[in-house]
Amino acid sequence: xxxxxxxxxxxxxxxxxxxxxxxxxxxxxxxxxxxxxxxxxxxxxxxxxxxxxxxxxxxxxxxxxxxxxxxxxxxxxxxxxxxxxxxxxxxxxxxxxxxxxxxxxxxxxxxxxxxxxxxxxxxxxxxxxxxxxxxxxxxxxxxxxxxxxxxxxxxxxxxxxxxxxxxxxxxxxxxxxxxxxxxxxxxxxxxxxxxxxxxxxxxxxxxxxxxxxxxxxxxxxxxxxxxxxxxxxxxxxxxxxxxxxxxxxxxxxxxxxxxxxxxxxxxxxxxxxxxxxxxxxxxxxxxxxxxxxxxxxxxxxxxxxxxxxxxxxxxxxxxxxxxxxxxxxxxxxxxxxxxxxxxxxxxxxxxxxxxxxxxxxxxxxxxxxxxxxxxxxxxxxxxxxxxxxxxxxxxxxxxxxxxxxxxxxxxxxxxxxxxxxxxxxxxxxxxxxxxxxxxxxxxxxxxxxxxxxx
Length: 454
Description:
The chain is α/β, with parallel strands linked by helices. Helix content is 32%, strand content 24%. It is built from 14 helices and 21 strands.
């Protein structure tokens, strides 16, 4: 079948891009080998945040006495939590299907493989197009740990299918996924141990940022084995053993492996199309998403950069303008925020303090405990901190980190300021509603001598 555009994968870049191109008069094919919606809808944002909401509800009820509210015994019906999650995922997935059908986009089911330049085979049928967009996403990495191939373990997708509460969940990896799932299942009622070879959770962050989260985790009874390298894994279902270098052994009922992801390019046949990959399997592409093959582009997690749903969605927006000749502005130079939906949340954008030092970037650093915010005391959510880096010459924000309640919402104040290239003084001079968490955004800047009230 011949089309104008073939999109391989129906993730958060592929679907809106296909829809907008079809609306612009293009004949569009989407190839999808699994469920419509990609990682976000099926095994990422939608299901995890749905289950995190259930875990938070349990924690709020369990700790209500601190606010003078008497709550009865709190129990979690994990099967019902999973059923609710599945229902919401199904709703979103069916919504994607209705959207594509209504826009008259041809959806072909099956694994897509390049058979030549601008030529893709799906289920034995060959499709050609002048433009092909790779949006195949990524999958969890299975690390080369001795015994792991002989030991039952879970990834983020399969753990969300477990319907009986794990007695003791062991987690390899202290990144976003390990932290979100660790706290989630601790709040459901499981014992939880997180092991990471780095000295801190979310090791890319500054130590003070990581420490703020670690303190909150320990306060909830989550055991942390940091700076701990795993030497071997063994056991059977219900009796898992993780041996650390140095001889210490961790024992649990279930094992979650969450140490990263790799692009789904192994069986895509990129070599047949002339699409080059790096040593990790990521597609090599320039700032305008162009691969090494004429007419073939790549977006989303397969690029190997920040693997966030919002980054994939923004990729579609930029590539759409490029394909229609409306703009050549690419992905370089944009500011990419993130949020880990732990409690407290961890959010950030731009440089960390240690990155600024490594790059010899001059900066002024302001920090403040989240508990200094009046609103935080009123609702008794004082855990965390705020941190901001300012260019001393221009007063522009170089980076910011927030650990605290609603950090994922608050960080956008800094994102907007950075995208506009505006000075931080705009925040200092604005009038902020009291009592709100947003007062902390202004207050942390005022810890800097240049913005301090005289």
